[in-house]
Task: structure prediction
Amino acid sequence: MPVSWGTIIVELVLILPVGIYLYYSMFKKIRLCEGKVCPQCQTPLKPFQHPLTRNWEQWKKGGFRCHKCHCLTDLDGKLIHPGPYPTRRIMLLSLLWMFLFYLLTIAMLVLFYLFYVKPNG
Result:
């Protein structure tokens, strides 16, 4: 079954901004971490860390965790005191909201395809 140019363009218009955002955010995160070292052990900080290892201060303002001594730093590489971590309930609720948003997006794309692209007709 041949694919029309209209559907290809619609898919590109829908997917391309997400790809550009992901590329830009990863590039920005790597650039923010360049030249930053841990204030305690002088180890270079890694730009990415597991989301469950962040505390509330890092979720709000950003920051890094040293992979060697596990101290917390802000975006400038200054030491911050460890605070409370997100609870399991909050993490599960946020995952549920993301999943519901994903389902809503898929439903909108299916409805768009059925009513505007009009397959078989």
About this structure: The beta strands are 64-65, 72-73, 79-80. The first strand starts at residue 64 and ends at 65. The two ends are 14 Å apart (CA to CA). The chain has three helices and three strands.
